[in-house]
């Protein structure tokens, strides 16, 4: 079973994402900000990151840069989520593998996760 780190500061959104992922058979770890995500990424074995871009403290683009600079996890797939499509260029430039607009549609969300895990 793949382990997915869901980084989302909004508790309602995080709960929704967790339930979608668990129902699809994934193990889910959660972080409410970029700094907590950094800690989990260094302490846990994680297969993929689902990442909100607007986070308190260390934002999603900054966290993506950090992940891509760390040789131990640099190739980890990252799926960025945001309500603001104006960030698309920053997301791809930072190194996210895929971008989805909120609110997520469960089927498309799970398909994107499965696709990224196979790559």
Explain what you see.
With 119 residues, this protein is of the alpha/beta class. The protein has one domain (3-118): Rossmann fold (3-Layer(aba) Sandwich). 45% of the residues lie in helices and 20% in strands. It is built from five helices and five strands. It has helices at 11-23, 34-43, 60-69, 88-94, 106-118, and strands at residues 3-7, 27-31, 48-52, 78-82, 98-101. A five-stranded parallel sheet has the order 2-1-3-4-5, sandwiched between helices. Strand 1, helix 1 (11-23) and strand 2 (27-31) form a beta-alpha-beta unit. The mean pLDDT is 93.
Under the CATH scheme, the architecture is 3-Layer(aba) Sandwich
Distance between the terminal alpha carbons, to the nearest Å? Answer: 16 Å
The major sheet is characterized as:
5 strands, parallel
Helix and strand sequence:
EHEHEHEHEH
Strand content is 15-25%
Low-confidence stretches: none
| Average pLDDT for all residues | 93
The CATH homologous superfamily corresponds to: Response regulator
At the first level of CATH, the class is: Alpha Beta
Number of helices: 5
